[in-house]
Fold this sequence. Notes:
Elements: E1 9-14, H1 28-45, H2 50-55, E2 58-69, E3 78-88, E4 92-101, E5 106-118, H3 129-132, E6 159-162, E7 182-191, E8 194-201, E9 204-212
Antiparallel strand pairs: 1-3, 2-5, 3-4, 4-5, 6-7, 7-8, 8-9
Amino acid sequence: MDKDKSKIGEFHFVTEPYLLDFRGRVTIPMIGNYLIHVASSHAAERGFGFNDMSERHTAWVLSRLAIEMIEYPAMSEPITLYTWVDEVGRLFTSRCFELVDGNGKTFGYARSIWAAIDVETRRPTLLDIARLSAYVTDRPCPIEKPGKIAAVENETEGVPYFIKYSDLDINGHLNSIKYGMKLMLYKREADNGKYDMAICNEGKAICRAAVMWH
Length: 214
C-alpha cells in the first residue's frame, strides 16, 4: 500500500430516512455528525482516540470547522468520507475531509481545527507533535483554514436559549459550558446570502459562525 495513502481514512455510509430534511436531503447537522464520527475513528485507529486521550487525562475539542457543500445526498445514497491530517502545531492540529457520492463525485469538503484540553483544568495542552506528525499528508484540500468571524452581539437583538441535557456531549459540555447555563443567540445578515452568528453567555461570545448560501 502507498505509504501516504495509508494515512488517509476512508469511511462508508448509506443515508437513512431519519437523516433527511423536508427536501429529502441530508442536513448540515448530520453532515457534521459524519465528520465528527470519521475524525474520531481515524484518530482512534492511530492511537489518539477518546480512550487514548482519556488515559492522558485529555480530550479533543473542536475549535473551528468550515464546511463547503456542492450538493446534498438524498435517501439511500452511499457516501464515502475521506479524512486526513494536514498540519500539526504545538496547540492545534488541522484535519481535512472530502465527501464523495456513490459515483465517485465529490460533493463537499470540510476543514477542521482541533485542540487537546486537560479534562480537569479545561485548559489547552501541548500536542504530541512527534507522534502526530507521522500521520500528516499533503493531500490537497480546497478550503482555507477557518478564520476570524465578525462580532454581531452588539449590533443585533439576541434570542435566549437554555442548555438542556440533550445538548451535552460525553465530556459534559456544549462549547465548554455547563448544563443549565443561559445563552443568547445572535444573527446578522452581512451580505446577500451571508450570515454572521454568535452564541454568548453574560455578554461574552463563546462560539461564532458564518453561513453563506450560493
